[in-house]
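S.,

As promised, the adenosine monophosphate run. Input:
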Amino acid sequence: MASIEEQILEQIKRYDTIIIHRHQRPDPDAFGSQLGLKAILQASFPDKKIYAVGKSVPGLAWMSEDDTFMDDVPDKAYKHALVIMVDTANAPRIDDQRWQNGLETIKIDHHPNDEPYGDWQWVKNGHSATSTMIYEFYESLKHQGLMMTKKAARLLYIGIVGDTGRFMYSMDKETFRVVSELFGFGFDYEAVHHNMETISENAAKFSGYVLQNLEILPSGFAYIILSKELIEKFDLRDSGTSFVVSLPSKIDRVKAWAIFEEQDEGNYRVRLRSRTIVINKIANQFEGGGHAMASGAWAQTKSDIERLITLVDNELMTINNSN
Ligand code: AMP
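Predicted complex:
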């Protein structure tokens, strides 16, 4: 029987139009796997129309070396299209819900398969990044005409660097093997690192604020609530706020942490991380999910925030007491 990778390539070959989606509020792995797959398919099938859709994120626009970052796709293109979703566990989080108008749909992801949407699913829960999977897809089917390019290799590398936390989390031999293969395509990794590691002066000052004002509970749970007003005061522009997510991990006694960020609608986006307890089950209770140690969620009110803090705090206390 054909492998799932072969079945996916079979579908790709059948269609003239392929539209690639990824999740809302994209991170480097979402863009890397989306644009990396697009570059591989463009090189392999120059006669097909391959699109990448979703909102642009100014802070990550450097990832694309082309003039266009995301494509404008007319509604009618979906009528005859194969639609591929990368890096997105749940259908409501897919950026641009027109994905449902595609003739056939494929899910490629490395999160827990809580919501198995799509006509085909290739899910490697716990794999280091969806970008790693896209490389493996190319590698296992290059004998059938798939082509890797320098541009695609660079994008996939960025995705892997992003989702492994600069090779600190979800690391394994396979990831290093894939990275070593990607290096063979000769992209400028120093320029990539510069873009990923530097932040604006305002962002640096904001980082200082976050570290100084972090609340650290005796259990080892750290959190900070960032109001819209405060974020506006720091004038972060294109930087966004994602660069603060890893800051609490620098503090040795922090075991799990959350960043609550107020949104225009008055609710709070929650970024939840851990190095001890599993936190995606808690995120599931707050319209969220993700990986065991890196999840996202939503708090609609201040009392949701308090409830979430209590849940993580209690969980940590239980672990602490049992050790
Ligand atoms: P973030 O905190 O946004 O960087 O996300 C951390 C991880 O959780 C990523 O793998 C996201 O795809 C996932 N994630 C974030 N928010 C949600 C959500 N509301 N529902 C499900 N998964 C999420």
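The chain has two domains: 4-196, 201-322. The radius of gyration is 20 Å.

- D.
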